[in-house]
Records
---
Amino acid sequence: MYLLYDLIWLAGAMALVPWYLLRRFCGGKNRQGLRERFGWYAPGRLEVLQGRPVLWLHAVSVGETRAAVSLIRGLKKSFPEHALVLTNVTETGHAVAQDIPEIDLCLFFPFDISWAVRRVLRQVRPDIVVIVETEIWPNLVRCSQQAGIPLVLVNGRISDRSFPRYRKVRRFLQPVLNRFACLCMQTEQDGQRILTLGALPERVSVTGNLKFDMSCDGISSLTTESVRAAYGLPADSLVLVAGSTHPGEEELVLDAFVELRAQGVELCMVLAPRHPGRAHEVGQLLTLRGFNWVARTSLDGSTGALKAGDVLLVDTVGELLKLYAAADAVFVGGSLVPVGGHNVLEAALLKKPVLFGPHMENFREIARLVVDAGAGKQIRSTELTSELEAMLHDPETMQAMGLAGYNLLHQHAGATERTVSHIQRLLDN
């Protein structure tokens, strides 16, 4: 079975090589990333690990990387002598990881081919492998166990969409799950689901959601006025930030923006596609619809670059949290279209009221808690304009919603400490 899995992965990796080479030729990108995905590192790349025990954390993309920040800080505090290595699959996740000061080395995750994984394990020599959320790579799991390296799944979740699919392959998934030394799940339901899939009960723990332990170091001290000035946003206008949007959502958000403007609302919008690579596509949409817009990378730092009715298009990575600080209200995308939602707690961290759509399957528990706490509203696409209008005309309610979200975070904090304790136990054995 593993031989067949290797062959499938190898065929897929070889098919991707021309694409990587084309991007390198056109834009100078991915040279290091391509080599690292096969476990080949440039001379001196791993020098920071020499003579030190190593903790290897893996977070597939941006959301998982941001969720892991509190854990990374907790691990650095508990194990200061260890070198922390963070791997990512996506380039955007890798870019975010490089801005985390506690990380000693950021690498691209290798293709899950047995010889590539073994090559990485021999060079990195981790004392433990920590996988963030439900990233179950069979060869990484198998090769780590064969090398005597314990594996931990942290912040684990089984979404409503994934659970039926996992059940169909339970026969093959169970042996992989049983190679984990510990499975730290977000909720009781997640814990029960992974048990149903065959995980050993003594290795499953419900530790809570790391996203409730987020911090906004360096941002919480900034004022709304200073952030707006830094991004050229108008000081005398309301600001709506639409974050992590997907195809099909930008049109809906822009429709609401036009309607609100037609009703006389002095409003400026920040539009941040989930994938910055779509910025050109979204920019074309803005031009086609007649908006005056400025790309984030085109800002020259001048105050008042935008005015009411304008759109700031975010074509960078890692700035969304700071932009939330400039908002009066926040809409979080991936939720009006069937993507599964994104993390609405980032808005709560900045004490901002948040709206999101019905498709929150990947954040079902967080969405429920936010709505129950009065920190945000879950809406249909047809309600976006009316709900925004009601919020923007009621600053006291917006303030109360933002504070409710901030308090919610503190009420459910503690997952980091519980997760670190499990990792500590395994390292002590």
Note: The longest strand covers residues 238-245.
---
Amino acid sequence: MSNATDEIRSPLSAGYENAGHRSGVRQLPLIVPMLLVSLILPFILYLGPLRLSVYRVVLIVAFVPAVVAWLAGHAGRIRIADIALVLLCSWGAISFFVVHGTAGIQAGGMLFIETLGPYLVARVYIRSAAAFRAMVKALFLIVLFLLPFALIEAVTGKDILLEAMDTVWNSYPRVAKDPRWGLQRVQATFEHPILYGVFCGSVIALTYVVLGQGWSFLRRAGATFLVLFTAALTLSAGPLTGMTAQLLLLAWNRILGAVRSRWKLLACIIAAMWIFLEFASNRSPAQIFISYFSFDQHSAYMRLHIWNFGTASILAHPLLGIGFNEWARPSWMRSSIDMYWIVPGVRHGLPAVFFNFAAFFGVVLSLIFRKGLDEAQSACRMGIIFCLIAFFLTGWTVHYWNATYVLFHFLLGSGMWLLDARPEDDAPDIHVEEERPPLRYRRSREDLMSTSHFGSSRQ
């Protein structure tokens, strides 16, 4: 196995080894932070008719090496989620070609680059708890970088970061935003405040559970609050829904950390509530969820219509969808479909819906039922599950596109190494900060050393 210096020098070829023997190297190859940083660079490049962004250039460079490494077994054995994503991209490319002819070839190719590309980059180059934690740290630092600029934009309405980048190269246009709660909705370097909120908000649980592993409670709570505060400046209901879900899951785990069946109990409570709403209300639980997780009644009303007319479009074109053509809807509705989970069906038909859900639940359920991990690996498992649950809930009220779409599929693949990991594969060197107990409960040094916060079952 190459050393850390070799990995940095060779960002596209280093960072993995046969996962059948070990879970992977400890260092994070340079290609991963390069991709993550590229997601907040708003520059738009044109190569003839091809519209490129910085992250697209990074993914195009990384795509073939990642595919070769994946097929060679350097990311462990091929999983159901892998196959589902390949089928989703293949079916989408076929549908684009059938619906749009040769003009759809470019869109089909970019579907592979933006969907399978980030997934395989994470799948191949993140193969250990140490590499996973380094990835989370990179995301955390990116959010901290955005914080002061986001605060200025929220107070003054001036997006100085995007304006500065626009002087360097052509960037995203500023969108018209209505103020909420006396503040401006933050766009930062993204195409819309919603995308900014989804990007920053996805790091909340990862910061607390993974990056904060071994830290004192106050330090990890402080770091998590910084991420939460930065993300909340989106002032958009969809991203706030995902943030709330992560906070509730973290609180549930901390309060009931000593109860081994706490997640089964939570699943039973949610199932009971779903059944109650199904029979006690004249609206479906999904309609109730969409209605209440909106800033105003108009937004809730529009999202219900998106669901109704979007699903009607899928049923009207069940095999190949309509591609980029206009979907059937009243003239007073906007063309955008603010609901990620039905967009593949509208564009590519019911098979795409099936493949999309198969990929998502192929990852999440495999991680949920993964047992026999050590403490560092279990923390990574919990953090990525909470993160993906937030993406799942938010996706019913917003659409993921461009950088946020890439981030979602990257995070979807970032935890797959856990399915091949074995306990003590990583042996991470994490400094544990011990909290000094009150004087009346002060114990001997030996007692303190044996009951560190890192050893607590509460993450």
Note: The beta strands are 44-47, 50-53.
---
Amino acid sequence: MPNILEIVQPDDWHIHFREGDMLEMVTNYSSRINNRCVAMPNTKVPITDSNKAILYKNKINKASKDKFEPLIPCYLTESLDINDFRSGIQNKYFFGAKLYPSNATTNSKYGVRQISNIYNLFEILEEENSTLLIHGEKVSDKIDIFDREKYFIDDELQIIRKKFPLLKIVLEHVSTAYGVKYIKQNKNIAGTITPHHMLLTKRDVFISDKIDPHHFCMPVVKDESDLIELRNAACFDNTKFFLGTDSAPHPIEEKKSNANSKPGIFSAPCSIELYTQIFDQENALNNLEVFSSINGANFYNFSHNDKKIKLEKKDWIVPEFSVYKNIKVKNFYANKKINWKVIN
């Protein structure tokens, strides 16, 4: 087994940069590894027009110390300016569009309540060969939090695919065996897989009458059987799956052990190392590069990155916190040992 692993530079096809000082901190971590990142548009004021997308991209670029390409999807709402949306897609101001069902996750209150009301936007995406990125959860008081992904697939996604068969779709942070199976069986659809969905189960989150706020995310992690299928999809049968960390920081004071905790796991300080350790555990290191650096670029019709990165097999401890200016965020895998480390 090699002690040095060299792979094509990865891309992160799903990450939250947030805003202000937090954006600067996240950019520093993310640009240390990745060439491209899809920056989620669910900022406090969501990115719903071309001007907002341009400004947000410029802020991330300004914060980056290295060559780095942020890609900004349009945050879909039922009241978008259609002309601006089409123009933003055509001129590449928008990197496709992101569907947030209303109240599914952080800053999704502006999201879509009735998906049929935005079919005209899907038509534009399909015509322009642009991608629909989906937070695939159906939110209802009648639906268990662990079943949201399945209900979204059955009640919403299947209808979208039938009406728009040529529309390219990414089911982001797929979290269930059901979701993995659906992606494998259907055309024009791919999925991103996070490290935390391959490392945690609901027993790590829901403890008695409390939650572990630093393991709490949306979609929530599921059962061990789901974790196993996600590992298999990423590490072996991985043509349609690629890296998307869904690294989503919140200040420490906003992460509480009750229902008021904000969902989100911050893995950017150790993301590629975690993926590498998972692939090593599955005896699949030879497939890491395909998952982290090839599949996503292929799906989105990008060239592969020219640069390479090296990882060394050596133990290190993830710091408990990331601190930047007045921000303090608890890191995922805090105080735990990882046995791979980026060395360049």
Note: The radius of gyration is 19 Å.
